[in-house]
């Protein structure tokens, strides 16, 4: 964990630690008549990795979807950088440099791995460039080997790599990752962990929803715990050990 911590400190210095990437205040969200989020407050600095913890149904995925404008009604404030986005449609939020990797991945079965990778347009903020194909294949050698394979022929782990890689090509610098380690073999989970360390060292800001606490714990700078659509705990990596009894009660970890 010390190596991750050292890289964490270096990347914070390089990315301008202290600058706000995402500020959420009093966020309420609904699906139809169902009121899901109840006054969520959350702050993420540039270059940070922040993890949302909680049991299923706590509101973590809805928080990511609300940031992207994919829920129904939203009220409160969601500032991405200096821009208020609560009234923006999803396509304009994306053009603020936000990339969302949903749990269902959304790989196009009829397209090859590389065709899936080339599909999304550039949506990053002005001046931001997405990763090149060569950079992505360096980060994910499995995808280079399977570049001509159809989406249906990729393993679950390869599909997850591809889902994340598509975002990296767009130029997004704020990444919203929903349960990217779920159901994957340990060797693939390790690859994804190395990817997150690499992205952080390059200045990306990452908000993760994770059920796999062992995956998230060494990677995150700060943690928010959700319950019934509210933030009930927030703490940094230095406080993690002391918070374990609370996490055991809330999450069973």
Describe this protein's structure:
It is a single chain. With 253 residues, the protein is of the alpha/beta class. It has helices at residues 2-15, 60-67, 90-94, 113-118, 133-139, 141-145, 156-170, 186-201, 213-216, 240-251, and strands at residues 20-31, 34-45, 49-53, 74-80, 83-84, 98-101, 174-178, 205-209, 222-227, 230-236. The chain has one domain (2-251): P-loop containing nucleotide triphosphate hydrolases (Rossmann fold, 3-Layer(aba) Sandwich). The strands form 2 sheets. It has a 6-stranded mixed sheet with strand order 6-7-8-3-9-10, sandwiched between helices. A 4-stranded antiparallel sheet has the order 2-1-4-5, with helices on one face. The radius of gyration is 17 Å and the shape is globular. The chain starts with a helix and ends with a helix.
What is the CATH topology? Rossmann fold
Based on DSSP secondary structure assignment, what is the total number of beta strands? 10
What general outline do the C-alpha atoms trace? globular
N/C terminus separation: 19 Å
Order of H and E elements? HEEEHEEHEHHHHEHEHEEH
Strand content: 25-35%
Strand order of the largest sheet: 6-7-8-3-9-10
Question: How many separate structural domains?
Answer: 1
Query: Which CATH C-level class is it?
Result: Alpha Beta
SS element count, helices = 10
Average pLDDT works out at 89
Radius of gyration: 17 Å
Uncertain runs are 1-16
Portion in helices: 25-40%
Family: Belongs to the ABC transporter superfamily.
Domain ABC transporter: 22-253
Keywords: Amino-acid transport, ATP-binding, Cell inner membrane, Cell membrane, Membrane, Nucleotide-binding, Transport
GO molecular function, one term: ATP binding
